[in-house]
Amino acid sequence: MRAPHPLLTYFHAAADGRFPPVDGRVTVLPPLAGGLECSVAFTGHAVVATALSSQDVLAQEPDGFGASLAPDFLRHLAGPKGWIDVIDVTLTARGTGGPPRLAEPADADDHPRVRHARDVRTNVEVHGDERGLITLADGLAGRRELSIELHDTQDGGRGHGRSLIADALSLVPEGEPVFAAVSPGNARSLRAFLACGFRPIGSEVLLRPARV
Question: Origin, by domain of life (predicted)?
């Protein structure tokens, strides 16, 4: 069995309210599985998982106060032709357990949300109903990760986002940390996660480098 990526320790500690020191520094860790890398910003401290050396990374002068997510730094990490995902807010909550309140749909394999999850995550589970669907998967650094997509986004989804997230938490054992990455511009989704007890712990961006 593969050892957990060291970044997972940072996420689980943050879920418990324990954060890296606010020192402006950057910690450099090995790359993620599957050819992926990332830059994660906590308050006053950044963590970069990459195949580049610490010397190479620090020579670009990133810091723990925002520069680890600057466009020029991310392009250096990814290389000239590498893929850079959007910058997301990192959120965490706890599973509620109990009887599962969502079924597994039979026809969701071609949904864009599911395809994206399977491209960057492992052990992807899909659940949903007439409101929308959610994916639960082993995501960044192996953390348990939740994403959501509503079928009908008109009129604010009539509260469907919040109820779907609440039901999704029943699929996670009680007390177990679960994480979500939400675009800060997607205010409706961000409000729904916050209303369901998710707390912001930082921000992040995922990369697939191509350094030819």
Answer: Bacteria
